[in-house]
Amino acid sequence: MIEKNNIGVIHGRFQGLHLGHMEYLLEGKRRCDFLYIGITNPDPGLTKENQADPKRSTEEENPFTYYERMIMLRNSFMEAGIDRKDFEIVPFQSTILK
């Protein structure tokens, strides 16, 4: 049995929420009472090009705004039966800036 923490923190871009993301998010929540979900790249204008994957910072690879991703995550988590009081979604800007 996995020991449950009081607070957990996970993050991701979630540019097109998919099953793999939901599995990751739900596993994170299973391991804690309260989960902070950080959405990376909340302001694409501040994000530096990723040398390992140059397409990752293009508009085509980032079709959804922070707000749209936050709504997708919130609604999907609640649809999965997670009580709204048990998680918070926050912007998570990378330290790698232009």
Q: According to CATH, what is the class?
A: Alpha Beta
Give the CATH superfamily: HUPs
* Approximate shape: elongated
Order the strands across the largest sheet as they lie in space: 1-2-3
The domain tally reads: 1
Q: How widely separated are the two ends?
A: 43 Å
What's the overall average pLDDT, rounded? 89
Q: Note the main sheet.
A: 3 strands, parallel
Q: Write the H/E string, N to C.
A: EHEHE
The structural class is alpha/beta
What value does the Rg take, in angstroms?
A: 14 Å
How many alpha or pi helices? 2
> Into which percentage range does the β-strand content fall?
15-25%
Instruction: Bin the helical content.
Output: 25-40%
CATH topology: Rossmann fold
CATH architecture descriptor name = 3-Layer(aba) Sandwich
Describe this structure in words.
The chain has 98 residues and is of the alpha/beta class. The protein has a single domain (5-92), classed as HUPs (Rossmann fold). It contains two helices and three strands; from the N terminus they run βαβαβ. It has helices at residues 19-30, 66-79, and strands at residues 5-12, 32-40, 87-92. It has a three-stranded parallel β-sheet, covered by helices on one side. It is elongated, with a radius of gyration of 14 Å. 10% of the residues are buried. The model has no long low-confidence stretch (mean pLDDT 89).
